[in-house]
Structure formats: structure tokens, C-alpha cells
Amino acid sequence: MKYDVIIVGGSYAGMAAALQLIRARRSVLVIDAGLRRNRFASHSHGFLGQDGADPAEIAATARAQLHAYPTLTWIDETAQAAAGVKDAFVVTTADGRRHEGRRLLFAVGVTDILPEIEGMTERWGKSIFHCPYCHGYELSQGTIGVIACGAMSIHQAQLIPEWGAVTFLTNAAVALDPDSQADLTARGVTTEATPIARIEGHADVILVDGRTLSFAGLFTASRNAPATPIAGLLGCELEETPFGSQIRTDATKETTAPGAFACGDAARVPHSVSLAVADGAWAGAQVHRSLVF
User: Fold this and answer.
1) I need a surface site. Which of 51, 100, 153, 234 has the fewest CB within 10 A?
2) How many Å apart are CA 235 and CA 85, to the nearest integer?
3) 2-112+222-292: CATH homologous superfamily?
4) 213 torsion bin: left (phi>0), alpha (psi -120 to 50), beta (else)
5) Residue 42 pLDDT class (50, 70, 90 cuts)
6) 115-219 belongs to which CATH class?
7) Is 161 left (phi over 0), alpha (psi -120 to 50) or beta?
């Protein structure tokens, strides 16, 4: 069977796009590996109507609603390769099957590239975060540490005092010029230049000199890259942003490969569930228009 659209990635952006397309009675195949970016978090905040909900439940409810439409096909599998041209794409999954579609939509999400600090990975999404709008309120205006990993970390340290008393841990990852230092000081930010040895407990930062700094929560401006190279394998160009690399798209969410589109965290910045859903809905409508006109 040749589908009207194959969507690679069935998280929030991919499902939002699928909803627009199946409501236009188009045949849609969603191929999803089941690795949502926010799978480490127990609560999602800032998404209207779902504030504080378990992100897994949000995704499960959305998927159940999609399955009410007869033109949806869903495969729990990993898409390994994409080839072809507009109106004649082929996506190969890990089980060796080949799936044909007239259009492709990459909603593959991103991988978070974290600073290499012992104890960070296992706390990601639990007591270490990237988005203060998603997780800052729950820290109850307590002490917050911002761990530097690049130039964007300065902006993060400037913003987060809105949510609590901030210590900026530069960790030899960023050099502050006099103007930046003065700006942070004016915002009440404490700067700590001693490198980090590891993170323990809830959010206890152990410095190399043996001191322990305890926080209600930690933030870091993780670098991002598409969670899978499949769009690049098709020939879609990537572009650099202050947050990392993403799939290049135009205003209609079409990539540099005609007939292939991209949406969600892998194709826009900044990132949140709300923005991913909005981007997916727009992409789904634009993919549909490309089939009509």
C-alpha cells in the first residue's frame, strides 16, 4: 500500500500533524520507536488544558484519539532509512519492511547532549531541567543552580532569577566578560567558577574543592541534535541554531528535499510540548495542502 503521508515519529508533533491529515481523510502511516524526549519527566507543565499531567498519559490519550480514525496506520518500530523522491518515498523499518508514501514528515524529536558531569544523566528530567517555563514554578522560588555548557548558558542564567535565587556554575565551560558579569550581578546571580566534580542526592553539586552546594533544582542549556539521522540520509539539510542542529525547513515546514517535511523539536527552536503540538498541527495542514495543490 502507498500511503498519502508517512510520519516518522509519533510523539506530540507527529501526532498533531497526523490528526490534521486523518481529519482530511488522508491515509497516514505513523512509525514510532516509542522514545519521547520527555519520557524522563513525571509531569508536564505549561501545556494548556494538561498542566501538571503525566506526559505519558498525554501521549497515550492523544494516540487513542487518533486510532478512532480509520485512515490511520500505526507501527511501533524504528525507521532506519528513507529514500526516493516526491510522490515515491520509501521508508525502511528495523524489521526490514519497506513502506511507500507520497509525502514524508519527520517528527523525530531531538537528543539532549548534556555536560559530561557524573550524576547528571540519571537526574535529567527529575531535578535537572532545560526549560524554566516547564519546571521553574515547582521549585517554589528556592535556590537554583545553572550549570554552564556554552554561550546560551549566560542567557539562561540571566532569565532564571525570575524563579528563584540563582548560582551560575561556570564549570570552565564559559568565560564571562565584564559586561556579562555586571549584568548577572545586577540580577542577583551568584557566580561560582570552581569546577564541578559530580552531582549527588536530589540536586547537590559537589565541587572539586570538596564543597557541596545544595539546590532545589538545576538547569542546563543542553545542546540538541535530531534524535535520528534519517532526514540527513534522505538528503535534507541541517542548520545550526544557538541550541544545536536542526532540520532546515521553510515557512511551510518543507525540508530541502521536495515532498519531505519536518516539524517539532527537530525542526524548530525553542522547545516545549505546546510549541511542538502547534508546529505539528501547522505541518500537517501544509503537507495536506501539498497533496491538493
Assistant:
1) 51
2) 10
3) FAD/NAD(P)-binding domain (3.50.50.60)
4) beta
5) confident
6) alpha beta
7) alpha
Q: Residue 178 half-sphere exposure, CB side, CA atoms within 13 Å?
A: 0
Task: Please give the C-alpha separations between residue 170 and each of 189, 195, 257, 286, in angstroms, as whole numbers.
Answer: 12, 7, 40, 43
| pLDDT tens readout for residues 152-172 | 899 999 999 999 999 999 999
pLDDT over 90 at 71, yes or no:
yes
Check: pTM over 0.90? Answer yes or no.
yes
Domain ranges of the chain: 2-112+222-292, 115-219
d(CA 139, CA 217): 7
- What's the pLDDT tens digit per position in 27-41? 999 999 999 988 888
Alpha-carbon span 96 to 79, nearest angstrom: 10
Rg (CA), the chain: 21
